[in-house]
Amino acid sequence: MRVYTADIKPEMEGQKVKLYGWVHEIRDLGGLVFLLLRDREGIVQITLPRKFVSKQVFKLAKKIRRESVIAVVGEVRREEKAPGGVEIIPESIEVLNEADAPLPLEVTEKVPAELDTRLDHRFMDLRRPRVQAIFRIRHQVLQTVREFLSNEGFIEVHTPKIVSTATEGGTDLFPISYFEKEAFLNQSPQLYKQVLMAAGFEKVFEVGPIFRAEEHNTTRHLNEAISIDIEMSFTDHNGVMDILERLVHKVYVDVAEKCERYLNWLEISLEIPELPFQRITYDEAREIAARKGEEIPWGEDLSTNALKLIGEEIGGLYFITDWPTESKPFYAMPYEDRPEISKSFDLMHDWLELSSGAQRIHLYDMLVESIKSKGLEPESFGFYLEAFRYGMPPHAGWGLGAERLIMSMLGLKNVREAVLFPRDRHRLVP
Ligand code: ATP
Ligand code: MN
């Protein structure tokens, strides 16, 4: 007969229930003690009037320390003044594990704490309903992703995270020692998911870690992030943009529908974006930024400041398409008639990049040329290039940062808030 706090309704008046949870708060008014019990679904008030509970239970409630783990058996009573309109009059309280004092961090949010302190004592911080809510919603986001993509005919794959070549030859790699060889933590499943197109799977997705040695601490970069990646054959950039916007839309719909309680904990009312998302080209984006005083030389990436100005004007979820070929990785497919522009896109939320994608180069010679033109060596892409010589279909795909999506959907100020144990330039513990 164990119930969660959220299951207890005023109509259950008189019923006996058992609850497990943590002592969230104690208010001792002498002859009357209020104890708030918190479990993963919420908080309920345990009311102890001296006259109506046993001496032993009353004494225990007076000396128990906050955040101790308890089991309570008691009777449900209607009480309009209590949270949720109910209270429990306990018949027994069992202490399963007593907490030490003082606490390293306040779970009740009476005392605000710096993000760093919160992350240092993350297990404690995660007990806060507001923080729990983020991860309950994160679970739903990933559920929806898997369900949606499976329904679209994608199969889930796992590609290696220990690799010998850099995906994009970048400097932002973590080297590791692999027996007598040097290896790296993979920065993206890009090369492998493309190879799987040559294997004939046609539609694959992966939800997995990417590792990037980002030198600078920003509020949107992690050194270990979760990327939602797809790759799809016999389609182009428009085909995978269509999947991406419908997926993100479905994530919003599901979270709004199934995570109402957690959105309330966060005091968020989620606005469902409209389909299709607006599309602007790189050139149009540059013009908006220029009009607002930020000139971006053609060919360069849009600066954070430019993106802020563009985001201000467009707002919400939108695509920036048709990026200069030189600003995108070697595998992006150029337009046949305008090779200086690529069939590529970024999905943005206001100023924040959520996803990058493109139609890929599937032609061997063109790919080798493109690798060379980026100053990379085709020799170091052996296993990848081989897959393009024996029947590689045309294909396209994207990578969507799970934490960026959650951050922007919930309006979090720092991407670290969306990770249980974030890794950044200075944080390797916990
Ligand atoms: P940015 O320009 O914001 O650093 P990027 O263009 O280098 O990102 P991509 O290589 O396009 O990133 O990766 C695809 C997606 O993966 C990004 O749009 C983003 O959502 C996510 N992502 C990439 N790097 C990180 C990171 N360091 N931390 C969190 N998410 C990331
Ligand atoms: Mn990108």
Outline of the structure:
The protein is built from twelve helices and 16 strands. By secondary structure, it is α+β, with helices and mostly antiparallel strands.
List keywords for this structure.
binds adenosine-5'-triphosphate, elongated, five-stranded mixed β-barrel, alpha+beta, binds manganese (II) ion, 16 strands
Tell me what you see in this structure.
There is one protein chain. Helix 8 (282-291) packs across helix 9 (304-314). The chain has twelve helices and 16 strands. It has helices spanning 55-63, 115-120, 122-125, 129-151, 190-198, 237-258, 260-265, 282-291, 304-314, 364-373, 382-386, 402-410, and strands spanning 16-28, 32-39, 42-49, 69-78, 86-97, 155-156, 162-163, 174-178, 181-185, 203-211, 224-233, 278-281, 317-321, 344-349, 352-359, 395-401. The mean pLDDT is 96. The strands form three sheets. Strands 6-10-11-16-15-14-13-12 form an eight-stranded mixed sheet, sandwiched between helices. It has a five-stranded mixed β-barrel with strand order 1-2-3-5-4. By secondary structure, the chain is α+β, with helices and mostly antiparallel strands. Manganese (II) ion (MN) binds at residues 346, 353, 356.
Order of H and E elements: EEEHEEHHHEEEEHEEHHEHHEEEHHEH
Mean of pLDDT: 96
Shape: elongated
Assign a percent range to the helix content. Answer: 25-40%
Uncertain runs are none
Query: What's the N-to-C terminus distance?
Result: 36 Å
- Radius of gyration (CA) equals 27 Å
Extended strand count: 16
Number of helices: 12
Largest beta sheet, briefly?
A: 8 strands, mixed
Placed side by side, the strands forming the largest sheet appear as: 6-10-11-16-15-14-13-12
What proportion strand? 25-35%
Structural class: alpha+beta
> What bound compounds does this protein have?
adenosine-5'-triphosphate, manganese (II) ion
